[in-house]
Amino acid sequence: MNTLEILRVTKDCDDWDKLICFAENCSWEAAGVHLAEMMKKDLFIDWESVFCAKQNGQIIGFCTFLKTDYYPENRYSPWISSMFVDEDFRGNRISRQLIECAAGYAKEVGFTRVYIPSGITGLYEKYGFQKIDVLINYGGDTDNIFMRNC
């Protein structure tokens, strides 16, 4: 039986180092290296967090929950970002479960809305998000900004 768990991972958690390793070796190098560095340097402040998806004990995905994201103009907060699910596990709505867990946590810490940046359209709308803006990121690319209530 395939058991899926979505967990908030903290520095004192057994999965902290495993998630660093997974992130460093995931196929989305930019997000993985960035997350691994954030975790190694323990750069999460206040309520910021990282979440991971595990199936049968194996880490298969992650997302972050941050105050700011990859934008010089950060007019929104909090961000669910760096959403990644291993290619072998895509199509099973794991990203949805990561989002639900992060949004639930957002509500627990006092937020009423969450934001997701993406170059993709048609994915996050299925999870109740609506496109509210477009921002230019530090790399000079344009990203859609999606919002939904917690």
Would you give an account of this structure?
The protein has one domain (4-149): 3-Layer(aba) Sandwich (Aminopeptidase). The chain has 150 residues and is an alpha+beta fold. The chain starts with a strand and ends with a strand. Helix 1 packs antiparallel against helix 2. The strands form two sheets. It has a four-stranded antiparallel beta sheet with strand order 1-2-3-4, with helices on both faces. The model has no long low-confidence stretch (mean pLDDT 94). It is built from three helices and seven strands. The protein is globular and about 40 Å long.
What is the element layout, followed by pairings?
Elements: E1 4-9, H1 15-25, H2 29-40, E2 49-55, E3 58-66, E4 79-85, H3 94-108, E5 113-118, E6 130-136, E7 142-149
Antiparallel strand pairs: 1-2, 2-3, 3-4, 5-7, 6-7
Helix pairs in contact: 1-2
